[in-house]
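ingest -> validate -> predict -> emit
validate: passed (alphabet ok, no gaps, 234 aa)
predict: started
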Amino acid sequence: MNRVTRKELRTDKFALEIGHTVSLFEEHRKEVIRYGAIGLVAIALGIGYWFHRGREHAAVEQQLAQAILAQEAPAGQGTSATGGLVFPTEEAKQKEVAKDFTRIRSEHAGTAEAAIAGYYLGASEADGGNLSQAEKTFQEVAEHGDERYSSLANLSLAQICFSMGREADGEKILRRLMDHPTVFVSKEQATISLARYLAKKNPAEARKLLKPLVTETGAVSQEAVSLLGQMGTQ
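emit:
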């Protein structure tokens, strides 16, 4: 079974632009580069939600913030350059992170915080190479979260399916996301994700999907042009 890292399970930076979080991306560009966008997306979802909810759920918000910080903390390097949290080993980190996110999901089921925790937990499980459990976790978020979090979980599910050799399942998920876009997973993002996986299997269809996006603006066009360039001109 292939290992999928959080970098590979990322939501590309152009999706943040499409998803109306471009200002947050610009503020946290270094974090995106350092950790990969999947972590920042979860942070973006949490921050956006917190701003709208104010102080109504301050306690669970604090729990979620602490869990996210733990997820992004270094492991096995003695001290942190910023003086923050450090874990002695990666195993100890993953154990603590799993406990924190699982507790939030259990105690606050049905809330946006629980969906964010589940999304992050799935990413952590995939990062540790436990794709079977990550798939189950993402599936729960996909089934029980609102359409925004469900779409993000489905995007990660598609990537796991491809990694596990279930290409037909991955394609089906991405085509469904294309037909039912959300604010967090746009039609353009799902299209480019599908084209990326079709590039070797069916380059003709991949090009057909990408060419209309070349005339779009911003990161969508840049990504489409880049992928077409990687595929060649045939």
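The radius of gyration is 18 Å.
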